[in-house]
Amino acid sequence: MARSVLADLVVPRGAVDRPVFRDVETTYGVVQGISAGPVVSFKGIPYAASTAGPGRFMPPQKPEAWTGVREATASGVVCPQQPADPRGDYARTIYWDVNVGGYGEDCLSLNIWTPAADGAKRPVLVSFHGGGFAAGAGNNVGYDGAELALWGDVVVVTVNHRLASFGYTYLAGVGAPEEFRYAGVCGLLDLVASLEWVQDNIAAFGGDPSRVMIFGQSGGGAKTSAVLAMPPARGLFSRAAVQSGSMVRAQTEETGARVAEKLLRELDLTAANIRNIQTLPWQQLLEAQLRVGAIAFTPVLGTDALPHHPFDPAAPPQSADVPLIVSSTLEDAALVFRQHHIDEQTLQAALAERFGEQGDDVYALYRRHEPDKAPHLILAQVLTDAGFRRNVHLQAERKAAQGAGPVWVYQWDWPTPAFDGKFGAIHGIDVAASFHAVRDTFFAGQEEGRLMADRLASAWVEFARTGDPNNGALPAWPTYDAKTRATMVFDAQTRVEDDPRGEIREYFEQFPMPQTPIG
Fold it and tell me: Which CATH number characterizes residue 121's domain?
């Protein structure tokens, strides 16, 4: 009988050609995932015990084993945080206002997407989410790994971990007992624990524990930078990528102690009754954290977990042999704007406020390079170039100077057509591309957007597979060094440039180095 024309045209509904549920044995018990077509997802799997009560401000502990089958079809709770304001176009574009999983301190869980829980030994891509060290979750819509797992035949993992005061309150600096010595790096130790879990269990989900790539954008890039410098993380991954989040220096003990002192004052605690901080409701701790300022809580030096700055004065020896990709987007800083339609006079006034007498020089420099660019996007470029893009260059330079594992650099220049193009090549646009999330509103359903996602995702998959991002979808991509500064420029005409916008890079070398990445 001839095949139905309609059968070829419509999406099949209700029929399955494989089991809907999939049980996998982990070291702690059996988890049950659910298939969505050719991809199986497992969500909310605990990789460590609850951090509530006696676990608060302590290193992560192994989860309790369970009997029977544990359903892993829904996301777990995430670290307490203030939800994103839904009124901003940017927050809506990246789905940052969509909270999945609720809040609580039993938040050390991970999510897995795999084409099949078999013995295929696929590359494993572990994503550390953005949001600085204060917000976000591996549950967020923008980190859904189904499309990348299907497109690249890889296993994708996203991780939830402790944030802000829950993960980075330096209690050792305010007279706390010795057992609290890791309170300033608990969030990073959570990431290490998640990678230990991956090493022990990912083969059962079709992954290869010898080919684990860690990556993250913005705060996720900062976390990746820090993990590269952590002795307990050595050997748990074999490739890394930092997207718009190069963290060269961590918080010092002195600064961490000042932040912790402010938190204790807000909680009406002192060194004498500091143990009470473990018994307060998490809601009270969160509100005190927000009064101090959530972004003040970041990883603190001073323990064997993070004994030195991530990339200062040099690249970390702990990951010397690990291949690395480092990147930024052309207009990363556009995410901070509330107004996207300023005139030339406002641009010049903003540059004068930021650079004083040199404001006119900065204006002339950028208008020479970008005569037709919208004023607010020029300002975004300036703030990016004068700010954390310098850390991107420095991180890559120091990795290259180490002379061990190779480093590649890219700059994302392709502007999103979303919202009439007002965002430009904004912070986070390459997250969607690296997850091959072509339905993302950054790409507005355009064929060119799909091509851009194909290009970056192909580099991601090949890098995870072999430790080298070169593949047939891109021009030949040389490694980076301080002499040539070879950079892959992702744009409609994706290309390699040596030291793109070098005059601008050199101009900002006269200013003090920035200390923290965006968001």
Answer: 3.40.50.1820
Percentage of the chain exceeding pLDDT 70: 95
Whole-angstrom CA distances from 271 to 59, 250, 262, 275, 394 are 20, 25, 13, 8, 39
Residues 369 and 504 in one domain: yes
121 CA to centre of own chain: 24
In a domain? residue 270? no
**CA–CA dist 519, 513 (Å, integer):** 17
- Dihedral sign (CA 44, 46, 49, 51): negative
* Domain co-membership, 232 together with 332: no
Quote the tokens at residue 122. Answer: 């696929």
In which residue ranges of the chain is pLDDT below 70? Answer: 1-3, 6-18, 444, 514-519
User: Do both 341 and 206 map to the same domain?
Assistant: no
Beta-sheet pairing, 39-46 with 109-114: antiparallel
Burial of residue 136 (CB within 10 Å: 0-12, 13-18, 19+) is buried
Task: Give the pair of three-digit tokens for residue 188.
Answer: 């990073």
Judge if 59 and 200 occupy the same domain.
Answer: yes
Q: What are phi and psi of 400, to 5 degrees?
A: -65, -40
Give the dihedral sign, CA 207/212/213/219: positive
Q: Which of 248, 500, 507 is nearest to 394 (CA)?
A: 248
The predicted pLDDT at position 93 comes to: 83
Where a domain ends, among 319, 349, 374? 319
Same domain? 359 vs 471 = yes
In a domain, 209, yes or no: yes
Angle made by CA atoms 249, 163, 292, in degrees to the nearest 5 = 80
Check residue 168 and report its DSSP letter.
Answer: H
Are 306 and 333 within one domain?
no
How far is it, in rounded angstroms, from Cα 192 to Cα 224?
11
Tokens 């659910």 sit on residue: 34
Please indicate, yes or no, if residue 55 is contained in any of the structural domains. yes
Residue 23: helix, strand or coil by DSSP? strand
Residues 312 and 400 in one domain: no
Is there a domain that residue 279 lies in? Answer: no
Structure tokens at 321: 């042999």
Mean pLDDT (the chain) is 94
Q: Among 288, 377, 374, which Cα is nearest to 332's?
A: 377
pLDDT tens for 378-425 read 999 999 999 989 999 999 999 999 999 999 999 999 999 988 889 999
Residue with tokens 């010092």, as numbered in its chain: 252
270: which 2 tokens?
Answer: 């002192």
Residue 421 lies in domain: 324-510
Phi, psi (rounded to 5 degrees) for 20: -70, -40
DSSP characters for 355-407? HGGGHHHHHHHHHHH-TTS-HHHHHHHHHHHHTTHHHHHHHHHHHHHHTSS-E
Question: What is the C-alpha to C-alpha distance for residues 444 and 419, in angstroms, rounded to an integer?
Answer: 9
Q: Are residues 354 and 434 in the same domain?
A: yes
